[in-house]
Amino acid sequence: MSHINIGLTGWGDHPTLYEHIHSANEKLLAYASHFPIVELDTSFYAIPPKRNIDKWIYETPDSFQFIAKAYQGITGHQRGDIPFETKEEMFDAFKTTFEPMKNAGKLAMVLCQFPPWFDCQKKHVNYLNVVRDQLQDYEVALEFRHQSWYNEKYKENTLAFMKENNWIHSICDEPQAGQRSVPFVPVVTNNKAFVRFHGRNVAAWTKPVKGQEWRDVRYLYDYSKEELTELSEKVEQISNAVDHTYVVFNNNSGGHAASNAKTFIEKLNVSYNGLAPRQLNLFEE
């Protein structure tokens, strides 16, 4: 069984982890005292400046790793024009930003999560080849949000395509709510496994919402102990086929991700060396 790394998406929205800190600037270090990995979401909305990358590298333990979410212009989420002259310039900016993190051994992978309208058709397969070519020097995970990639006709071809092109298959647990959700497919296509837990809030997944509300509504879910037991058994089986396994909890909006992840760590009986020192308020009564 590979070493199983468990963490959360983002480090800013988990109040139970920050009871003893006094500044928002201390959140990442506090987070790194609990978990060995984090999914970096801010890189989806804008490519971070170099000073941020340098700061995150400096603030985290040597063994800590980031999963960087690909910029939205790369995955086709961007509305309107991307703020770059060309797509090549966009890719170059992303690679230049994350190269220091990769060189420091702190970039576990880049996550390319494609939108629900990115369905299984030839033009989209061609674009995936462009992305993989541009990011050829990086380990890259691929996550779909349209069920057509996993239907009976295309499933085996999809997984074979990922394996042939050295994509890390992003295995998702999420609400099963029609074409805009994908099933849990525990197949690995690389020497790394990546599993993301989005919750199982089916009603909210299909509810039409606007703006930032969609995240607050769709990821409001608390996994039960029975569900976490079931998922821990699946992750354990997945981990037997690879060298490294990464698991992130994305059910953040109700504050459940951190506690679910802690329970998951207990169920898998894993422990981590090299975490940041836990901060304590010595003057607290």
Structure description:
- By secondary structure, the protein is an alpha/beta fold.
- 35% of the residues lie in helices and 16% in strands.
- Strands 1-2-3-4-5-6-7-8 form an eight-stranded parallel barrel, surrounded by four helices.
- Strand 4, helix 6 and strand 5 form a beta-alpha-beta unit.
- Helix 3 runs parallel beside helix 5 and helix 10 crosses helix 11.
- The longest helix is centred in the middle third of the chain and has 17 residues.
The CATH topology corresponds to TIM Barrel
CATH class reads: Alpha Beta
- In CATH, what is the homologous superfamily? Protein of unknown function UPF0759
Helix content: 25-40%
Work out the number of β strands: 8
Q: C-alpha Rg, in Å?
A: 18 Å
